[in-house]
Write a structure and sequence with these properties.
Blueprint lengths: L10 H26 L2 H8 L3 H4 L6 H23 L6 H17 L3 H7 L7 H23 L9 H18 L7 H15 L3
Helix pairs in contact: 1-2, 1-4, 1-6, 4-5, 4-6, 4-7, 5-8, 5-9, 7-8
């Protein structure tokens, strides 16, 4: 009797299959929400059996966290690259806003999942995802803290308003109109006029 040698899948193949699962999950979560997306449908979209997905992700919760981590990392990388040049404080905020809008409005599923309403249950998952967002928003908190604003300006409300305005843009933005960069510069121009010290 001849022994059959079984080879482990190559790390490259494993990484490709993991990425296929992530891509499929991001598309489903973006279009159907967390509750509406099933592991069976995600597996089918990724071209594998549902049970095979658990080699890469232990649960649907773990999969959503991984999609969020990828989306947040894309926002963070875009903003960090935009801040590489030494602008003055308003210029730095403008560069970050433009980078955020360009990343969001490029049409990627991962970034759209990040700004969707968080799942209501379980609370531990909601808290973990909120923590990922908070880490990213801390970049904007620091940028707004550096602005020369009137003493009575509420910097926390300014950040919340700006993040909300940017994220809501996916609902009304249409290609062919103002570009994401023009929208971002417009946001900052309006804020500067209203918030002169």
């Amino acid at each position: 009797m001849t022994a059959v040698l079984q080879l482990a899948p190559s790390p490259r193949l494993t990484a490709n299959r993991r990425q296929a699962v992530l891509d499929a999950a991001a598309a489903r979560f973006s279009n159907q929400g967390y509750e509406g997306a099933s592991m069976r449908d995600i597996a089918k979209d990724a071209g594998m059996l549902a049970g095979s997905m658990y080699y890469h992700f232990a649960s649907k919760e773990d999969l959503l966290i991984a999609v969020h981590e990828t989306g947040v990392a894309r926002f963070e990388a875009a903003v960090a690259a935009a801040l590489a040049d030494p602008f003055e404080p308003w210029g730095r905020l403008e560069a970050a806003v433009v980078a955020h809008l360009e990343t969001l409005l490029a049409g990627g599923d991962f970034t759209r999942v990040v700004i969707r309403e968080l799942p209501r249950e379980p609370l531990s998952l909601r808290d973990r995802l909120a923590g990922l967002r908070d880490g990213y928003e801390a970049m904007f908190r620091r940028l707004i803290d550096d602005l020369p604003l009137p003493p009575d300006a509420d910097r926390s409300l300014l950040r919340l308003m700006l993040m909300g305005g940017m994220n809501w843009s996916q609902g009304w933005y249409r290609p062919g109109g103002q570009t994401p960069a023009e929208i971002g510069r417009g946001f900052i121009s309006l804020l500067k006029k209203e918030l002169r010290p």
